[in-house]
Specification:
10 helices
Length: 227
């Protein structure tokens, strides 16, 4: 398969994941109500986490993403962070103070935190993403670097588009639109936070069921077994 054909397929697969509703999309829309460039900054923060992760998978460390404790801790921490951010957005609706918090630094940090704390993001890279990276390795380092750049550009374009549309909506519809956007985004972040918690609890329960019930059979002493 030629490199260009592979990269085209990779872009299509990447957009299918990028366009799925998630915490990054909700954050880009919410922060976009104050700045049309917020999505681009969120994407940069996302890339700070994603590009090193892709490099780690390329060099053979992808198996770490499949470890039980990594999944559970990521889901619990991510669920907590999403819940805090969701509650913060809902409070901003009532107090109309979100503009003071929608700065470049916080948008970049949000992109980093929401990526690192997203178990579904890590799962995607441990499965679909790892397959793409494995296929890119056939074309050597140029193939991998091309994949990494194009995939991140998919994130960049989509998040930038969302924040731009959100900004235009506020510009034409006023503060009422911003309040609706913040309320919807806050609820979505709380929903995703609940899903993350549910994922962690599900993994813990599954692990416990696989371990089986504790052995309650009385053990005979050495003397009893010899008689």
């Amino acid at each position: 398969m030629p490199l260009l054909t592979f990269l085209l397929e990779a872009v299509l697969v990447s957009f299918s994941g990028v366009m799925a509703p998630g915490p990054l999309s909700a954050t880009a829309v919410a922060r976009g109500s104050e700045s049309p460039h917020a999505g681009a900054v969120v994407a940069i923060g996302h890339g700070i986490v994603e590009l090193p992760l892709m490099a780690a998978i390329f060099f053979g460390l992808g198996f770490l993403l499949e470890q039980f404790h990594v999944r559970v801790v990521t889901a619990l921490v991510g669920g907590l962070l999403l819940s805090v951010m969701g509650i913060g957005m809902l409070r901003s609706v009532r107090r109309a103070e979100f503009a003071a918090n929608a700065n470049t630094h916080s948008s970049m940090v949000a992109g980093m935190v929401l990526s690192a704390g997203n178990p579904y993001f890590l799962l995607w890279w441990a499965t679909v993403g790892a397959t793409l990276i494995s296929r890119s390795a056939r074309f050597g380092m140029p193939g991998f670097l091309s994949l990494a750049l194009l995939h991140w550009l998919c994130d960049f374009v989509w998040l930038y588009l969302l924040s731009g549309l959100s900004f235009q909506g506020k510009r034409f519809l006023g503060k009422g639109f911003q309040r609706v956007v913040l309320a919807v985004s806050g609820v979505l972040l709380l929903y995703f936070g609940a899903r993350f918690f549910s994922s962690a609890i599900g993994d813990l329960l599954a692990q416990r069921s696989l371990a089986g019930p504790p052995d309650t059979t009385p053990h005979m002493g050495l003397a009893s077994r010899l008689t």
